Each structure stands twice: as structure tokens, then as C-alpha cells.
Amino acid sequence: MRTLASRFDDEYWRERDHKAEFPHEFYDAVAKAGYLGVAIPEAYGGSGLGITEAALVMREVAASGGAMAAASAIHLSIFGVSPIVFHGTEEQKRRFLPAVVRGEMHVSFAVTEPDAGNDITHIRTFARREGDYYVINGRKVFTTKARESKKMLILTRTTPFEKVTKKTDGMTLFFADIDPSAVEVRELHKLGRAAVDTNMLFIDNLKVPASDLVGGEGRGFHSLLDGLNPERILVAAEAIGIGRAALAKAVRYAKERVVFGRPIGQNQAIAHPLADVYSKLEAAELMMMKAAWLFDHRKPCGAEANAAKLRAADAAWEACDRAVQTLGGYGYVRDYDVERYFRECRLLKIAPVSQEMVLNSISEHVLGLPRSY
Ligand SMILES: Cc1cc2nc3c(=O)[nH]c(=O)nc-3n(C[C@H](O)[C@H](O)[C@H](O)COP(=O)(O)OP(=O)(O)OC[C@H]3O[C@@H](n4cnc5c(N)ncnc54)[C@H](O)[C@@H]3O)c2cc1C
């Protein structure tokens, strides 16, 4: 993966970012080399490897300088279809997964809504049964890659919030077409990662065959839960990759840039923060690998996956910030790339789950403190 990713240099990613163009050449190369199926079972065309191997792929992709643009271009193919892998019917797996592995089917993941961010149970998008179909109406926000994708995994309510006894019940997942006659896709303009689109979806009477319901009616939230820990592990790996890319640029510059007659890296005010960030990235990686090992050995890994995401996102942010500082004025200039890493890695403190919600989870589920919300 490192060799493959090195074919797409900083200039390639800078241009994709500047022009807000999806990195098709990169995506196609990754698909051709078989990496999109790294964690998809061999029976459906994948490699059948674990989340450890998937994490290594994502780390190298981000570390190449592709940062979040590269990671997000392939993340949803590598991991987004996990509800189908874990909960889909045999027929669905055969129908969808090989096309995802071959790179022919881009996938989006439509969960978040304008009035339901971290509190997913308050989604309002509704799927009403009509014979062999469901008809979906609602609004989604932050749906990444919806412009590239013909398909989305969409979380809906099939029983209104007010009518369920347990608030996580009554939600249903579909693998639906993003049919332009029923779904308007409106792009959001973001701080970073312009190469990979993120959108609002306006869904009006979208017809979905009942055969595309994934994981049982009313069981949508529960189908998503299995994917939370592996997703946190992959996101941690992406963060570590970006942090490493930023650190490498900072170290090279600190050796070369001479100010007051000596390389700036000779000043401990420059060197120590970089050494500190190195140790934080290493520590986050160990936590990430521990979580991945536990997951791959079918052991509980919630505490470790959350801690890995928390530490890795913070370490990446610090690495990128220190890289900008090390490059001084040039750190603020596009041609030097660290400002792009800096903008893109900020996302990892917010999505797919915020640092605050990770701390909530550790407080409650690991430390046994009372639930705060
Ligand atoms: C670039 C990008 C891409 C994304 N891609 C997707 C995608 O493909 N599919 C998708 O479904 N979603 C996607 N998301 C959405 C992302 O997962 C959400 O932004 C995230 O879930 C937070 O929701 P929110 O923004 O509505 O925040 P809110 O829920 O409104 O929270 C706002 C702030 O309050 C804090 N907060 C809220 N409640 C508590 C509490 N109880 N304790 C402490 N702090 C709290 C949060 O941590 C956050 O900092 C994406 C977001 C971004 C920015």
C-alpha cells in the first residue's frame, strides 16, 4: 500500500484539493490492486483479512500525504459496507459486495440529520411500507461521497420515536439507490478535504425494494453498533498516518532551514515539540493496534477503540499544528502542504464521532460513571 500510495504525491493531492476534484486515478488504482476488499470475506471477492490489515492500509494511505482526501475516498468502500457484511442476507452480499470490491460501486453512508447529530435516535427520515417497497422521505446532512455514489446505506425510522419503548428500536437500514428523481444532493463547502464531497440530501418519495432492507426491520441501530469499534480503529489509523506525514515534513524542514546561522531544529523550542509528538503518535498507534488485535480475536475492544480514536485524533492535530509552526510563514502556504494536513486532520476530532462523545463513552462504559446525557 505504501508503494502504491507513493505514486500519488503531494502535488496530486494539492491539486485535487484546490480543484475540489474526486481522486479517481487513486481510487481506481486502489481498487485494481484489490485493497478495497481488504476486510470483505473472500467468498465475495475480498481478501478476508482483519481490521488490523485494514488499519494498516488506511494508515499508509493517509501517511503518503493523501491525508483525509485519500482516506475518505476509499474508507466507505473498505468499511462502510460492514452492516451488509455483518447483517446482510446471502443474496445481498452476492449482489453488492463484489461490485464494491472491484471499485464499481461507490457507497455513501447517510445517518446524520440536521436535527440528529450525535443523538442518532432522533432521526426523522421515515420509511413507509407500501407492498413490496418502502417509500423514504426526509433530510440527511454530511453524507460523504453522495455525488460519486449510486448507492447509500441509509438509516430511517420505520416506527416513530414516540411509539417505541426503547429509543434505539424502530430504526431500519436500507441499501438504497441515490435516485436523482427522488434525492436532491446539495454539496457543503468545508474547511478541508474538498476532494471528497460531503452533502445535504433532500429525499422525497424514494422507492426502495423491501429486498434492499439490511438487517431486519426495526434493527437498524443495532446493525450499526457492530461497526462502531472497527470504524474508530480505522479513523485512529488515518489520524496516525496524517500525523506521521506532518511530522516527516516538519523534521525535514527543521534540518534544512537555517536561521541565525544554524538549522532551526537545533533549537529545542522546535525540536522538543516534534519529539513529543513523535512519542504521542507512537503511543496512539500501540493503542490502535491493541484495539485492532482485540477486535480481530473477537474480544471486547470498546475501551481500547475509543481510547485509540481519542489519542490518535489529538496526536494528529498536535503534529499538524507543530508542523505549521516549524515551517513558519511557509507552513501557511499551500505549496508546503502542512496547512492541508492541518485543515484535514481537524475533522477527526469531530467525525465520525466527536472527542466529547468518546469521553462520554469511556466515562460511562469503562469507568462506570453515571451517564451524562
Ligand atoms: C466532513 C464531514 C463528513 C461527514 N460524513 C458523514 C457521513 O458520511 N455520514 C453521516 O451520517 N455523517 C457524517 N458526518 C457527520 C458527523 O458524524 C457528525 O458531524 C457528528 O456525528 C456530529 O453531529 P453534529 O455535527 O450534528 O453535532 P452535534 O450532535 O450537534 O454536537 C455539537 C457539539 O456538541 C457536542 N455534544 C453534543 N452532545 C454532547 C454531550 N452529551 N456531551 C458532550 N458534548 C456533547 C459534540 O461533541 C459536538 O462537539 C460528517 C461530518 C463531517 C464534518
Q: Could you characterize the architecture of this molecule?
A:
It is a single chain. Helices cover 49% and strands 16% of the residues. Helix 2 runs parallel beside helix 4 (51-80) and helix 7 runs parallel beside helix 9 (302-326). It contains 11 helices and 10 strands. A hairpin with a 2-residue loop joins strand 2 (126-130) and strand 3 (133-144). The strands form 3 sheets. A 4-stranded mixed sheet has the order 1-4-5-8. A 4-stranded antiparallel sheet has the order 2-3-7-6, with no helix packed on it. The longest helix is centred in the middle third of the chain and has 37 residues, at 220-256. The two termini are 41 Å apart. The protein is an alpha+beta fold. The chain folds into 3 domains: 2-101, Orthogonal Bundle (Butyryl-Coa Dehydrogenase, subunit A, domain 1), CATH 1.10.540; 107-216, Butyryl-CoA Dehydrogenase, subunit A, domain 2, CATH 2.40.110; 222-366, Butyryl-CoA Dehydrogenase, subunit A, domain 3 (Up-down Bundle). The site of flavin-adenine dinucleotide has 21 residues, from strand 1, strand 3 and helix 11. Flavin-adenine dinucleotide is lined by residues 109-112, 117-118, 142-144, 190, 198, 347, 350-352, 354, 356-357, 360, 372-373.
